[in-house]
Amino acid sequence: MKSFIEYSANSDFPIQNLPYGIFTSPKNAEKHIGVAIGDWILDLNVISHLFDGPLLKDKQNVFKEGTLNAFMSLTRPHWLEARNTLQNLLSVSNTSLQNNNELRQKAFVKQGEATMHVPAEIGDYTDFYSSIHHATNVGIMFRSKENALMPNWKHLPVGYHGRCSSIVVSGTPIRRPYGQTQPVEGADPHFGPCRLMDFELEMACFVGGPPTALGERVTAKQAEDHLFGFTLMNDWSARDIQKWEYIPLGPFTAKNLGTTISPWVVTVEALRPYAVDNYPQDPTPFPYLKHDDKFNFDIKLEVDLKPEKSSTATTICRSNYRFLYWTAKQQLAQQTVTGCNLRAGDLLGSGTISGDTADSFGSMLELCWKGTKPIRLMNGEERKFLQDGDTITLRGFCVDENGVRIGFGNCEGKLLPAIPFQE
Asked: pTM, whole model, 2 decimals?
């Protein structure tokens, strides 16, 4: 498959990918749906009339929206038809767009000239805890090796409901938060800026399909019709605030200060060639959590840390999505098992994705083992946790045997100093 749009072999966005995003540009301040191809964005608002297949010819309005919600709320056959239409239009063998100079001038925008936005209106956000290596590491730190996993962990995908209003797109700075901590065990709490600021290497899946009714369940075997696509996610975490506040109801203000996602949503269909065996599960999950097909993916993940006064970034983590114990299908099944209803644009976070080696741990908490093993950066500095001015960049990509690369773009954020608290 070859496109008439030229791009380098290591581009995140070949014709095999075609992720969706929301952008504005110098030519148009209105938010439009775009598809990434090489270094360009194809404006779907401009070419909406070309979606003339049997399913989409009466749904062209969804490509004129300022979010992906309306398109996501269609069915999986609609999504597949849209993908086939786009690949056909961008193919080197199709001249309808390729040779229409006037339409091409209107339809293509340089990515470097565009401003990206959160891809959808996110109504609900759940963050899971699905990496067995991450959960084991945290359990060892705060309990013991013999009691690392809680009794429920291998029976269901553990998660908590997050704050969707503070989900931001890549490039948005994050402020160090204030909060209550307990620096000395057993002493009175302290109020002030977070001292143990952390990132979390995650991925997230956008829910799609028609909304489900309250009381309706979606099993893991039915889940694919409700999973639209994936992004990278950094769940910024204030560890000292988290430690003091999480008992007995779990994460709260330590997690609501900001969550960064990459701007491009890579569809399930684009990831399908990179499917790998699901993580072995023992004991066997309950029937509502079981699915036989592969829904784990060989997505290579990297995290860079760049200090403010340095031009050099250090890659501090290399992990892989395939390390997740619970799949996105199982996460969605757990979300709905009680009858919780779904809406297009809901977001399911994977939880921190850690591998089985020390350089694949997906957080500073693990990489520095609770502050006892500092990381040395390329510029000679050391880190136990994040410092003001640090920029964290997440990257994710798949590569097949032919060298075709499917990427997500960057998920980046800079940590800014706390705003002084005034009573």
From this structure: 0.97
Q: Is 373 exposed, middle or buried (0-12, 13-18, 19+ CB in 10 A)?
A: exposed
Positive or negative CA dihedral for 389, 245, 349, 327?
positive
pLDDT digits (tens, 9 = 90+) for 296-338: 999 999 999 999 999 999 999 999 999 999 999 999 999 999 9
Under 8 Å between Cβ of 43 and 34: yes
The yes-or-no verdict on residue 27 having pLDDT over 90 is: no
- The most distant pair of C-alpha atoms in the chain lies apart, rounded to whole Å, by 73
Residue 422: pLDDT band by 50, 70, 90 thresholds?
confident
The predicted structure's pLDDT at residue 200: 98
| Two tokens, residue 156 | 């269901």
* β partners of residue 168: 260
Nearest to 69 by CA among 31, 33, 35, 120: 120
Q: CA neighbours within 13 Å on the CB side: how many for 398?
A: 24
> 134 an active-site residue?
yes
Query: What's the rounded Cα separation, in Å, for the pair 348 and 331?
Result: 8
> Which of the residues 32, 78, 133, 134 is marked catalytic?
134
